[in-house]
Every structure is written in C-alpha cells, then in structure tokens.
Write a structure and sequence with these properties.
Order of helices and strands: HHHHHEHEEEEH
Strand content: 15-25%
CATH class of one domain: Alpha Beta
Oligomer: single chain
Strand order of the largest sheet: 1-5-4-3-2
Low-confidence stretches: 24-35, 37-41, 47-60, 242-246
Structural class: alpha+beta
Distance between the termini: 95 Å
CATH architecture of one domain: 2-Layer Sandwich
Length: about 250
C-alpha cells in the first residue's frame, strides 16, 4: 500500500516514511451516494414531459383569446376577478321592494306587486316600452373584454339568466330591476370578435313606459366606462374597482 501523502511503499494505517495518518483525507464525501441510473433517467423524462404538457395545456386553454362564455368563466383568474367585483356591488332599493312594503300595509286586498308583474308583459306586446342602444369598440382580445363585461355586470348586482353562444360572438342577458320611477326591464349584451378588435353592443328595454328619463342611457354609458376601466386594470395587474352609477 502506498502512502497517500508521500507515496512511500509499505504504508498501513501510518506511513513509516512521513508518519502521517492515512485516514486524514477521509470525510463525509468519501462514500459516494449510489444512484439508480434507470430511475434517475425515468424521473427526468417524466419531469420534462410534465413541463411540456403544462406548457401545451396553458397555450391551448388561453382564455384571453376565447369568445366562449364557459371558457372564460371557468378560468380561476377570471372567476376570482368576478368574485372580487361582486363583493364591491351595492344594490339599492328597487321598485319591487317598495311594492312589497306597500302590499304589507295596504288595505286594498290584492297584491300590487303581482299585478304589476302580470301586466308588464302585456305592455311589451303592445309596444309600450323604451328601447335604447349603445356600442363601443375595444382594442382588446375577446376573452379580456368578456371578463371586463362579466365584472361590470357583477359590480351592478345583475344576474345573467340567458347566454347565447356562437363561434364569433356571445350574447348575455340580464333583468334590470325596477326603480323609483321606472319599471323593470332587460339588458342584452353582444360581444363580437372582429378583424383586429372586439366590439360590444348594449341594448336595454324598459317595459310599460315610453320614457325612462335617461336611466338606460346613464346605465349603458357607465357600464362602457367601467368595462374600459377594467380592461386597463387587467393589463396593469390591478384589482377591480367599483364605480358608482351616475
């Protein structure tokens, strides 16, 4: 055995030539860890495949480029943002609330709330209603415009009850509660994918009256402004902000 220090022959535990201990170089790394090469290669391949699959799935499910309502709504980022917007809503007193209070104390013997609810569809068929429309174009991908619209609807405490889906467009509908001087109505929102931009069209109908004293116009103007604001916040990474209806 040769000395690991001076190279002299005949060294055992101690070298007779230099007198040094032959185990001085021993340390925690003297015994290498035994690695199963097949297991290591398999783990490496599985990890690489998982990374590739994650990239492909993320790319294939890019909700920001989708006009599909369910695709946008089901994405965790979108759902969290919509939930945050809904928490900022401040629903006020509606005409239905006032009619229920009136029915509770009225001595007339029948429900004015039920009567109003039953007669409004008749007014609609007779053409006694207020229709208004507003439209805007945004330099944004349809998925982000869809999310901004859903956040705006949630912030107004409105509930979507109808969805009509097409390959290049999506229509959303919600009921508008009655106010102190207006009957209940509906709002229809159409989002379309165009060449290089996205377009949104709002239509409101107030039943049983020919004038709504500017309610529809104020609502649609405010909603378009809030949609624009939410799009800006999305791109800058800010959370939703609540804007009060004028």
């Amino acid at each position: 055995m040769f000395c690991v220090h001076c190279g002299a022959d005949g060294a055992a535990r101690f070298c007779a030539a230099c007198g040094k201990n032959q185990t001085d170089l021993a340390g925690p790394f003297d015994t290498p860890e035994v690695v199963d090469l097949d297991v290591a290669l398999t783990h490496s391949i599985e990890t690489s495949d998982a990374i590739v699959d994650a990239i492909l799935v993320d790319d294939a499910s890019d909700w920001t480029k989708s006009i599909q309502y369910q695709t946008v709504l089901n994405h965790p980022v979108a759902r969290n943002r919509i939930t945050a917007s809904a928490k900022k809503s401040q629903p006020g007193v509606t005409g239905e609330d006032l009619l229920e209070v009136f029915d509770a104390v009225s001595p007339i013997g029948f429900s004015l709330a039920k009567f109003t609810k039953a007669i409004l569809p008749i007014y609609d068929k007779l053409g006694i209603k207020t229709d208004r429309q507003a439209q805007s174009i945004f330099d944004a991908v349809p998925g982000r415009l869809m999310l901004a619209t859903l956040c705006t609807i949630a912030s107004k405490a409105l509930v979507i009850d109808q969805v009509h889906q097409g390959p290049d467009q999506c229509s959303l509908s919600a009921e508008l509660p009655s106010g102190l001087i207006t009957n209940r109505g509906r709002i229809h929102i159409l989002i379309e994918v165009c060449e290089g931009y996205s377009r949104i069209t709002l239509n409101t109908t107030i039943s049983g009256q020919l004038y709504d004293w500017g309610k529809s116009t104020r609502l649609m103007t405010d909603m378009l402004a809030e949609i624009h604001s939410d799009l800006t916040d999305q791109l800058s990474g800010h959370s939703p902000r609540y804007r009060r209806i004028a």
